[in-house]
Structure formats: structure tokens, C-alpha cells
Amino acid sequence: MFRDRREAGRVLGRLLEHYRGEPDLIVLGLARGGVPVAWEVAAALRAPLDTLIVRKLGAPGNPEFAIGALASDGRVVVNDDMVRALHLTSEQLRSIARSEARELTRRQTAYRDGRAPVEVAGRTVILVDDGLATGASMLAAVEALRAEEPKRIVVAVPAAPESTCREFGGLVDEMVCATMPSPFRAVGDSFWNFTQVTDDEVRTLLATPTIGAVRPTLDPVAVLRAAAIEAPAGVPPEHVLDELIGDARFVLIGESSHGTAEFYAARAAITGWLISDRGFSGVACEADWPDAYRVDRYVRGLGTDGSPTHALSGFERFPGWMWRNTVVREFVEWLRLHNDQRRRDEQPCAGFYGLDLYSMHRSMGRVIDYLEQVDPAAARRAANRYACFDRVSEEDGQAYGFAAAFGGGESCQAEVVRQLVELQRSAADLIETGDGEAHFDALRNAWTVRNAEAYYRTMFGPRVDSWNLRDEHMADTLDALSVHLSRPGAPARIVVWAHNSHVGDARATEMAADGQLSLGQLVRERHGNDCRTIGFTTASGTVTAASRWDGTAERKTVRPPLPSSIEELLHDTGMPAFCLRTDRPDRAVDILRTPRLERAIGVIYQPGTERQSHYFHTRAADRFDAIIHIDRTTALEPLMPDSTWVAGTTPETYPTGL
């Protein structure tokens, strides 16, 4: 959310920086609410400011419901669908337009103080409002403006529905929507302060010069460069990490893609130091519990796997490269050697755990396998309950969710809950006859089945519901793991590996307006100062990603960052790898607290739709306690790269050779 219209204007000014210095540039603010926003844009771009007065045509009895708009040249734009739905006559429309025309004339006289409108013919015009809903007023403004033959029309607003932004994107030369809340309820919901702008404020702003206006001379790039701490290969100095992390029990380390080698390597190096030098109990990953448990057995010297490659072979589900890659293999082998020494010294070993919930069928099998060892009758009951899922294949949880959500099949919700409750109630008896570690594994698998079943059902409802359920599951698993690993007087300390989208605090993103939360937010809320979050960013290079879900791993080129994104700002420092602390107030934090675009590449990368697919607005300083930027990065190498990935190693300069 924006604090007020002035802050929204400063954000738009940064998003429009590429127009600064363009000759014949003019910024027009739609009166009244768009003028404070436009003044900040004009000041940022060092461009002249004027206003364009457009009046909304409100429905009879509900003037806030727009059925069209009236422009200053008398042009009327009407939403025909609304007019037909309300059964409005031509005379009713004329009456509404006449009333608004009188108010439009009054405002022109009041705001301009005798000045003629600025000529726009042959100029680049940036039209600014404080937000769009249906876009009727802006559409009238665009149509009126186009009649005066400007060189280019740009529309810029702080907030609008995605559908409206897309519609205007096809009507004007450039459409800049700072945020696109979903669901979109009202423009005012995007502002803390959305008090009505008065006529006096509009007159004052139009009379205040924007060119040469007294503005802060702070150079954000210079400030960030001065605050940056060199971090070779993305690893900050130990004393910086020590001061940042302190006594925190949970250190969440992110990544802005699931396929960047440098992120994985730096994260592994930081984690190794935390385990070996600061006594951390292990690492919990954005990975499925049973697959990670197999790795955990290996690093503890248990199980039957004879190498890290074999231990990682359980990660068969897409995207296999996310954990079956050369960097993770090296870390797993390091952790095994570290634990070998710990066992010789009779010290606790560090573990490797999974937090995710996609392993519904595999987790069912683990529950049944465990019960067959300790209580065969309970195993039969579990098998009968889980048989509810037999109608769908082991790898098709979505098919189950679709059928259960839309009445095409039986819901298994009650059965998985009964199994979980029985396993919890019989904990004491089962642990006496078996292994406490094995029971904990079975219990986490039962929880995974329960939450995965709910997740697949919610996949076909609002997207935020399934996202929140998944991150809540990860937070609950982390808490349960912390309790399990803690000893009297020695609380467990755990590193978390997950994407920035999970590690960062969702309250500092535009998704918070949708009700979306995140793992990092939940851990902060539950554990306060016992939590630290670190995000990674990059500007360019290559990445391992697929073009579609369940697709082949490809080595793709990462596009240069968008203008006014956090990635562009950090790239402009000219430093190859550095760390910025955001956990303490200073000028750099103030800069990073301002909303900017941030890029997120998951297991799928679609460069052709990058703005819509991979960017969202965040306040980076509120999202993380530290940010590590590695300016140019390379694709993560799968353990078994196929021909598609290898083909991607063709030099990026091909065929020009430049």
C-alpha cells in the first residue's frame, strides 16, 4: 500500500525514469486526485505539469458507479453495456452529461486562473491518475488527447485491476500500472491516506514549478554503493554474518530463482559456516519430506545409500534439478563428512529436512511402512483409509483435487484426518515399541498427507488459498522440527532454504492486499527476533528453468532487469557481488523501503511475458533483513543434464559472436 498520493507519484516517477530528459515531454494529471500524483512524476522527470479535466458520468442514484465520462473538449465516452443493463434513455444520458459539463467548466476556470491548456501536439504526454477501476474517465481523456495528435501517449497509475491495465496497454503507447491488486475492490484500498483532494490543493500544485523544484539530491545508487558490503561469490564476511544473525534460531535464506548456481553455492557456504561454527542443527528445505528424509539418513551415516548422488535420487518429481544438482550434491557430501566427525566426538549430527507437501502418495506409503513395523493392525487401518485415493495415479494429486472440488469424486478429507488423529493419540505406545525418530518421521508424513489433500482441493479455488495453505504447512513443519530437535537448555537452530517468495515477508509486497502470506512472515510473527531472513537477487546471466510445468530443464538467458526494478538499482552500483543490511535504519534502508519491482523466477521462466509472469512490487527493506546481490549468475547444473539443457550451453552471443 502507498502512504498517500505523493508517495505513489514518487514510485511512478521511478518507474518512468526512462522518459527523463526526453524533449517535448509533458505530464498531465487528471483532476483532482491525479494531480498530486502527477506533480511528483513531473518533478522526478523534470517535465512541465498541467491538468486534464475529465468528469465521470455516474449512474442515476449511484453517482460513484461510472457509466461513462466527459472530457474537456465535450467528448463523451459511454459504457454501452452499463447503459443497456441500467435501461438508461438518451435523455437521461444527456441530463447527466449536462450536469457534469457545468462542473467541468467550473473546474477549468478555478484551476487554470486564465491560463490556456498546454499544447500537446507532437509531444510525449504522460497521463496520470491516482488509480483506475473501470477506466471510463481515463478512456475519455485518452480519446480527447488523441484528437490533439500527440507524438506518444503514456498512461501511468499507482493501482488498477489487471484487466484494465491490459485493456489500456492495447490502446496507448505504454501503460504503467505500479500495482495490480487482485481482487480489485476500490482505488482507495491501495492507500493508507486517500482523503479527497481539494480545489485549493490542485491550484497550488499547478502553480508550483516542477522543473527545478527543490527535491532531495540524494543519489540512491551512490548511497547503496556506500552501504554495500563486499561479498565475494555472494558470501558476506563472517563478522557481518555473525552480527546480522546473532542468537537467532531461524535463518531463512532465499533465492530469486530455483535454477541459479551462485545462489545455491553461496547459500551452502553460509549454511556450512552456521552448522560448523555456530552450532545450527541442520537445514530445512523447500523440498518434500520423504525425499529429504532419505538424504537425512545418508548425512547421518544411516540408510543404505552409498553416495550423495544415490541419496538425492529420491527427488524424482518435477523439478528434479532443484535438488538433484551438483551444488546440493557437494553440500550433502560435506554434511556427511561433518557428521562423521561429530559422531566420533559423540556430538549431535546436523540434519537435512523437507518442508513441502507435494508428496501425498509417497507420504502415505511411509506411514503404512512404519506402522507395519510397530503395529500391523494399525497399518491395515491406515491402508484402508488411504485406499480412498486409489482412483487417481500416484503422481496426479491435481486430478484428485479437481474431482473432489467439483463433485466428480469422493473427498478423502475425513479419512486422512482420522489417520493423523490415531497416529497422534497412539504416539506414546508406538514410541515405546519402536523408534522415536521413526515415529516423528511417520507423524510428519501423516501431516503432509492431511495438508496435501487439502492443498489439492483448494487448487481449484482462489489461488491465495492454496498458496497460504502450503506456506502454513511449511511453517508448521519447521516449528515441529524445532521442537523435535531441541534439547533441555539447547534450543534447535535451523537454516531454511526456499525461494524469496516464501522466505520474504509477504506483508511488504503487493500480494498482501490479496490476503497472501508467506513462510517468512509466519516465522517472524511466531518467533520475532529469533528469525533472520536473507534474500538473493541477480541482474543477468543464465538460469535453469522449464517453459511449462513438468517440462524439460532448459538453460535460459535471463533478460536484463526492467527499469526501476530493485535488480536494476543494485546492478547500477557496478559491484559484482555485495550484501546490504536492512535490519537497521539508515539512508540505504530508506531507499530500499520504497516500493519497486522485484523479479521472481521459479521453476518456470517465460521471458516473453516477464513483466506479468515474474515481477511484482515490494518494499525490499521490509521484506528481508539483508539482501545479497550477485550481478551476473549462471545456470544450475543438473546431476543428469539432458540434451536440451546441454544445448543451452551454446554461447549467448551466437550467432553474432559479439
From TrEMBL:
Record organism: Nocardia terrae
Provide the GO biological process annotations.
response to antibiotic
The record ties this protein, via InterPro entries, to:
Emycin_Estase, Hydrolase/PRTase-associated, PRTase-like, PRTase_dom
Q: Spell out the protein name for this chain.
A: Phosphoribosyltransferase domain-containing protein
What taxonomic classification does the UniProt entry list for its organism? Bacteria, Bacillati, Actinomycetota, Actinomycetes, Mycobacteriales
Q: Where is the Phosphoribosyltransferase domain?
A: 8-162
